[in-house]
């Protein structure tokens, strides 16, 4: 499936049009991005000031996850767009009041969603590569 067909399939599956900045990201990146990033949360949360994301999903991964029943939280209108190796997930909200905002959640530790970016573009502009001690 090509990029535009995959993006349209996501929009059809979840019955909303993706924010333009996230749609552009998916069109630019046909594969998962697996270089870890971190971003400072916009609200205080118990885990610390930053969220680490190890993978940003491609449209193909989102559709594959949906096929496995692991793509979103329908009740909260949250689409999973990335993950952390330690059990956290990055979500794009499609609810009217928070449309396009990006949240981080570790569902096995805490049921709350924590705002990390006002949009996907904001996430990309404020995130930075993770540098592990053995890489420094």
What does this protein look like?
With 136 residues, the protein is an alpha+beta fold. The chain contains four helices and nine strands, in the order H-H-E-E-E-H-E-E-E-E-E-H-E. The protein is globular and about 40 Å long.
Topology summary:
Elements: H1 3-14, H2 20-28, E1 37-40, E2 50-53, E3 55-56, H3 59-67, E4 72-73, E5 78-83, E6 89-93, E7 102-105, E8 114-117, H4 120-126, E9 128-129
Antiparallel strand pairs: 1-2, 1-9, 3-5, 4-5, 5-6, 6-7, 7-8
| Main sheet specs | 6 strands, antiparallel
Give the distance, in angstroms, between the N- and C-terminal Cα atoms. Answer: 39 Å
Count of individual beta strands = 9
| Overall morphology | globular
The fraction of residues in strands falls at 15-25%
Helix content: 25-40%
Give the helix tally.
Answer: 4
Order of helices and strands: HHEEEHEEEEEHE
Provide a concise account of the structure shown.
With 136 residues, this protein is of the alpha+beta class. Helices cover 27% and strands 24% of the residues. The chain is globular.
Task: Note the main attributes of this structure.
136 residues, alpha+beta, 6-stranded antiparallel beta sheet, 3-stranded antiparallel beta sheet, 9 strands
